[in-house]
């Protein structure tokens, strides 16, 4: 449904997007992550035909955004970060106006507007002027606008920006509900929100794609897993037990209390040394009170492939070179 190939975009001497490639298949909900200024919005504006690409190509529902932009735009429902609505029009009037602009036939407009309001959950403010609704409702009116022509693809740019926690929760639930009928590209710099609604994430930083894959898989491939074991032993005993265990590195041990010590070590990707450590503890007559492998968080992974990744940048995480 969305295909991007070697896409680059320059603004004068500034390279905002640098040879980005990815695809979004029918029915996917893909989170588009990156720090502020990473190139997310620029990429989205190329996809939605606001900016021409400097080089490379992009297509929406099989339509090239450069050579067939009208058909490409008909396949997109776009929610920008700042929703441009007319404050003096009632919500239902605004959506009728937008439906007309988008070519919805007159005979179908009433039903199209009603369907969009129900999906975006703004029926209860339909008769209110747009300028009198809360910011949360304003975002949902913008979402109803994106839905009014019933496009197969939704591109949502920071849809929860500036909302309070309850409003963000409501928007996220609306996006989840829409995922059954639409292909969605969901841009945000708030990791928890993207993780909550997306089956796959793209991470962009300084204009380049740093990672592409399911959140759990990307985090699992990260080298930041750690093993923690606690037992009634001295720190030196714990370190001796860890010596030579395949997959453990950087082991260190500290006192937890007067009788227990904790062993913490980094775990190499693709291995699980916890059974080996547990067996060694039991063989030494030490019963572990705690033995686990801690997975890194999505936030830690994100830091690694963006700020931390500038030093060793794109390990081949999720198949990204």
Secondary structure blueprint with pairings:
Blueprint: E1 2-11, E2 14-24, E3 29-33, H1 40-47, E4 55-60, E5 63-64, H2 69-74, E6 76-79, H3 91-101, H4 106-120, H5 135-147, E7 153-157, H6 165-178, E8 183-188, H7 191-197, E9 200-205, E10 208-213, H8 215-221, E11 226-231, H9 235-242, E12 248-255, E13 261-267, H10 274-283, E14 288-294, H11 298-305, H12 309-312
Parallel strand pairs: 3-8, 3-9, 6-7, 7-8
Antiparallel strand pairs: 1-2, 1-4, 4-5, 9-10, 11-13, 11-14, 12-13
User: In percent, how helical is the residue content?
Assistant: 25-40%
- Rg, Å, rounded: 25 Å
State the total count of DSSP E strands. Answer: 14
pLDDT < 50 runs, ≥5 residues: 311-321
Shape: elongated
Number of domains: 2
Main sheet makeup: 6 strands, mixed
Distance linking N and C termini: 23 Å
Q: What's the level 1 CATH class of the largest domain? A: Alpha Beta
Query: Numbering strands along the chain, what is their spatial order in the largest sheet?
Result: 6-7-8-3-9-10
The name of the CATH topology of the largest domain is Rossmann fold
- Figure out the total of helices: 12
Structural class: alpha/beta
CATH architecture level-2 label of the largest domain: 3-Layer(aba) Sandwich
Averaged pLDDT:
89
Order of helices and strands: EEEHEEHEHHHEHEHEEHEHEEHEHH
Percentage of residues in strands = 25-35%
Tell me the CATH superfamily of the largest domain: P-loop containing nucleotide triphosphate hydrolases
């Amino acid at each position: 449904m969305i295909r991007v190939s070697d896409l680059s975009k320059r603004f004068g001497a500034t390279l905002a997007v640098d040879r980005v490639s990815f695809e979004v298949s029918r029915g996917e909900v893909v989170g588009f992550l990156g720090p502020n200024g990473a190139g997310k919005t620029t990429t989205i504006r190329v996809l939605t035909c606001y900016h021409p690409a400097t080089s490379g190509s992009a297509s929406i529902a099989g339509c090239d955004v450069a050579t067939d932009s009208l058909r490409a735009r008909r396949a997109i429902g776009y929610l920008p970060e700042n929703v441009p609505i007319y404050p003096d029009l009632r919500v239902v009037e605004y959506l009728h106006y937008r439906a007309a602009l988008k070519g919805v036939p007159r005979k179908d407009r009433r039903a199209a507007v009603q369907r969009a309001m129900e999906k975006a959950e703004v029926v209860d403010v339909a008769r209110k002027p747009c300028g009198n609704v809360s910011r949360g409702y304003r975002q949902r009116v913008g979402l109803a606008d994106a839905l009014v022509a019933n496009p197969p693809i939704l591109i949502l740019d920071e849809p929860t920006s500036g909302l309070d926690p309850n409003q963000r929760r409501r928007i996220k639930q609306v996006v989840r509900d829409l995922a059954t009928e639409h292909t969605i590209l969901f841009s945000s710099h708030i990791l928890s929100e993207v993780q909550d609604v997306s089956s796959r994430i793209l991470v962009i930083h300084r204009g380049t794609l740093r990672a592409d894959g399911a959140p759990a898989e990307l985090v699992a491939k990260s080298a930041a897993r750690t093993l923690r074991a606690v037992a009634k032993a001295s720190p030196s005993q714990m370190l001796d037990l860890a010596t030579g265990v395949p997959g453990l590195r950087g082991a260190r041990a500290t006192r937890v209390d007067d009788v227990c010590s904790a062993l913490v070590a980094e775990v190499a990707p693709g291995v699980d040394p916890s059974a080996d450590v547990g067996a060694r503890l039991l063989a030494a007559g030490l019963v572990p009170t705690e033995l686990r492998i801690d997975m890194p968080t999505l936030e830690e992974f994100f830091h690694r492939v963006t700020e931390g990744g500038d030093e060793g940048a794109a390990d081949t995480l999720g198949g990204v070179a």
